[in-house]
Amino acid sequence: MPNRDGLTLGYRFMWRLNWLLLHVAGPAEQSENRDPRRRMERERAERVARYRAEGAEH
C-alpha cells in the first residue's frame, strides 16, 4: 500500500519512538495546549494536511 501521507519511513519511526518515550517517561499530564504529545500530534496532522493540499494542486 503506497504512503499517502507524505511522511518518510524515518520520520514516522522517529515520531512514534518520541511519542512513546514521552508517554512512558515524559512530563505529567498537562493541559491540551502544553502537552508535548498533543503538540506532536498537531504538528504531524499539519504536515499531512500540507502534503495533501500540495497534491490536490497538481
How would you describe the oligomerization state of the chains in this entry?
single chain
Contiguous runs where pLDDT drops below 50 for at least 5 residues: none
SSE series = HH
Q: Rough shape?
A: elongated
Binned strand content: under 5%
Provide the residue-averaged pLDDT.
88
Judged by helices, strands and strand pairing, the structural class is mainly alpha
State the helix count: 2
The major sheet is characterized as: none
Radius of gyration (Å): 14 Å
Helix content: 55-70%
Total strands: the figure is 0
Straight-line N-to-C gap: 21 Å
Number of domains: 1
Summarize the model shown.
This protein has 58 residues and is mostly helical.
What does this entry look like structurally?
The protein is mostly helical and 58 residues long. Helices cover 67% and strands 0% of the residues. It has two helices and no strands. The longest helix has 22 residues, at 36-57. It starts with 8 loop residues before the first helix and ends with a helix. The mean pLDDT is 88. Residues 28-58 are annotated as: Disordered. Residues 31-58 have a biased composition (Basic and acidic residues).
Features:
elongated, 2 helices, 0% strand, mainly alpha, 58 residues, single chain
Give the arrangement of secondary structure elements.
Blueprint: H1 9-25, H2 36-57
